[in-house]
């Protein structure tokens, strides 16, 4: 199958409101077969479901991100109350979902100031991991707190995608042993110390591609779009010393293994 799968993007972000049709059309022209649209909070769930009406191209993932916005200036760690607001909507659309996400742990000090905050995030992740298992869906996972995240996921789920992983390659290899996948964004172009080293270590059979649009693009402070998936693929090809065609084929097969609901939509 010829084409890329963007395993993690925020196509419902306000950044795309004014030209969403054009962004989607350009994505198709750039060789994308599918976009997995991930959520951050219950307030955008209906928008993602609406976007997934683009037949066989945008696939919905609903979940509660580990960091929740209180105001434009203030953010905090997710709580069980955030999850309680989200669960009825997830249940309502469970048959349409390809994953539970975006979920995870983010122990960045400005979001968590105590062990209680960390424990709150853990409980939110555990409950969403259990839900993913119950619905036979993988987790689309967030950044930061690499080691505690992989250890927690290993206790809970067999299928997981770790997006924009910023932990040590040695920690990532624990995830590889557990059968997890790691998706690589276009910001790899400016991340020699972390993402390029990570790709060097990871087997191609555990790599997927993502854009995390509208962020994590090739240039800071410039809106990222799904069309930049080719940058991720080119860098993986260069670092692994394999053809771009092979990167396309293997990462797309990896996405189909991880997200089996894509198969019926993408295969004629």
Automatic annotation (TrEMBL):
It comes from the Eukaryota. A divalent metal cation 2 binds at residues 141, 163. A divalent metal cation 1 binds at residues 8, 10, 102, 212. Keywords: Hydrolase, Metal-binding. Coiled coil: none annotated. GO terms for molecular function: hydrolase activity, acting on ester bonds; metal ion binding. SUPFAM superfamilies: Metallo-dependent hydrolases. Belongs to the metallo-dependent hydrolases superfamily. TatD-type hydrolase family. Exhibits 3'-exonuclease activities and apurinic/apyrimidinic (AP) endonuclease (in vitro). Show preferential AP endonuclease activity on double-stranded DNA substrates and 3'- exonuclease activity on single-stranded DNA. This is Uncharacterized protein.
């Amino acid at each position: 199958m010829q084409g890329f799968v963007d395993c993690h993007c925020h196509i419902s972000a306000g950044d795309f409101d004014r030209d969403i049709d054009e962004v989607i059309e350009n994505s198709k022209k750039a060789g994308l077969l599918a976009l997995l649209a991930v959520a951050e909070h219950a307030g955008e769930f209906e928008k993602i479901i609406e976007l997934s009406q683009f037949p066989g191209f945008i696939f919905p993932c609903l979940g509660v991100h580990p960091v929740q916005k209180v105001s434009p200036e203030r953010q905090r760690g997710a709580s069980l109350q955030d999850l309680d607001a989200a669960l009825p909507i997830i249940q309502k659309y469970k048959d349409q979902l390809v994953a539970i996400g975006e979920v995870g742990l983010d122990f960045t000090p400005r979001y968590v100031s105590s062990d209680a905050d960390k424990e709150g995030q853990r409980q939110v992740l555990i409950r969403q991991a259990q839900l993913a298992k119950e619905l036979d869906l993988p987790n689309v996972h967030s950044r930061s707190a690499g080691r505690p995240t992989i250890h927690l996921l290993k206790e809970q789920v067999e299928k997981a995608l770790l997006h924009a992983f910023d932990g040590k390659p040695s920690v990532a290899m624990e995830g590889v042993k557990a059968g997890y996948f790691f998706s690589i964004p276009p910001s790899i172009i400016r991340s020699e110390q972390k993402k390029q080293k990570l790709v060097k270590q990871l087997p191609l059979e555990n790599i997927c591609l993502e854009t995390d649009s509208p962020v994590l693009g090739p240039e800071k402070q410039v809106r990222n779009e799904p069309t930049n998936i080719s940058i991720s693929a080119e860098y993986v090809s260069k670092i692994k010393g394999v053809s771009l065609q092979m990167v396309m084929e293997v990462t797309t097969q990896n996405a189909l293994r991880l997200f089996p609901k894509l198969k019926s939509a993408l295969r004629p």
